[in-house]
Amino acid sequence: AKGAGKGQWRRYQAALHNQVLDRLELRAELDQAIVDRSFVLQYQPIVDLRTGAASGLEALVRWQHPTRGLLAPGRFIDVAEESGQIVPIGDWVIEQALADAAQWRGSGEDGPYVSINVSARQFSDPGFVDRALQRLAAAALPADRLVLEITETLLLRDDDQTRQDLARLRQAGIRVAIDDFGTGYSSLSYLRKVPADVLKIEKSFIDAVSTQPQQRALVEGILRLAHTLGLTVVAEGIEEEADRAALVAAGCRYGQGYLFCRPMNNPDVLTWLADAQV
Ligand code: C2E
Ligand code: CA
Ligand code: CA
After folding, report:
1. From CA 42, how far away is CA 75, in angstroms rounded?
2. Which of 56, 166, 205, 233 is the 20 to 30 A CA-CA neighbour of 254?
3. What is the ipTM of this complex?
4. Which residue has the CA at smallest separation from atom 8 of ligand 1?
5. Where in this chain does the record put each EAL domain (predicted)?
């Protein structure tokens, strides 16, 4: 038994060692990717649940890795956050997404907004707000065509800098969304003081809306409070028609999910918009 324990320990150490090496390698490769700009954005429509018309599109980053193919953010975002590489990657995401969104605007028409994920590390980087405002001006996109998605943990942070930064963005007309609402530890009542405009309800709450009365009641409660507070609500990860119907019945106006559309490359967005908005 003692020998087996020792073997297990060695295997554990070897695995840990490999993990550390993997992360170091990933980090070095990410440095190169930042120089080469080997990232791409895919976009998933946020639709009006009653009509299917696009209201906005969420930008989702992927890494075009030289040997491993197209990597989802789950494979590299946490490493990039830990190393700070998320700052230059995020800057690129904002620049590219704004350029793409400017392209979606029909002549004279407002066009859909673009919703961009911003990690806490990126948001608290000095100069983040200045750079975002500069890029928005350079893209000549109206401020209300930009939404920044931020997690509730960051929104709840009780420091002056965060409060000031959020206020500056919102004063400029940029909307702030609470991403993954429901996954944090905060209570519903915190919504009363949260400096945000949009609330995105996390997928796990949405999955059972049509089948579990308790889940449905919870989502209805979130919707009622959010609407009272003037927040726009977006339901995430809708896969079933029954869930869409239940959400509409509960008063939820907007949503996104595979039921409507998977994330797609920018060239396909214009085609999708033309088809979906008639
Ligand atoms: P998120 O912000 O919650 O984005 C939603 C994720 O759910 C996306 O995964 C999307 O492809 C996926 N999804 C959408 N509809 C459905 C559905 O109906 N069913 C299921 N099963 N999944 C659905 P993705 O693209 O892999 O992104 C994962 C996470 O990576 C995002 O979660 C976000 O937190 C982060 N992320 C993505 N792009 C960026 C970025 O540019 N910057 C930062 N900082 N984080 C990003
Ligand atoms: Ca998001
Ligand atoms: Ca989310």
Report:
1. 16
2. 166
3. 0.98
4. 60
5. 23-277
Q: Which atom of ligand 1 is nearest to the CA of 42?
A: 25
The residue ranking higher by pLDDT, 23 or 232, is 232
Under DSSP, the state recorded for 257 is S
Max alpha carbon distance in the chain (Å)?
75
**pLDDT over 70 percentage in the chain:** 96
pLDDT at 22 over 60: yes
45 lines ligand 1 (CB under 6 A): no
What distance in Å separates the CA atoms of residue 276 and residue 147, rounded to the nearest whole number? 21
Ligand 1 contact via 125 beta carbon (within 6 Å): no
- CA pair distance 108, 99, nearest whole angstrom: 17
C-beta of 119 in contact with ligand 1 (< 6 A)? yes
Q: With beta carbons less than 8 A apart as the criterion, state whether 183 and 202 touch.
A: yes
Please write the tens of the pLDDT for every residue from 238-266.
999 999 999 999 999 999 999 999 999 99
Asked if residue 88 has its Cβ within 6 Å of ligand 1, the reply is: no
Is the backbone of residue 107 left (phi > 0), alpha (psi -120 to 50) or beta?
beta
User: Which ligand sits nearest to residue 128's alpha carbon?
Assistant: 1
Nearest to 34 by CA among 93, 97, 116: 93
pLDDT at 19 (0 to 100)? 81
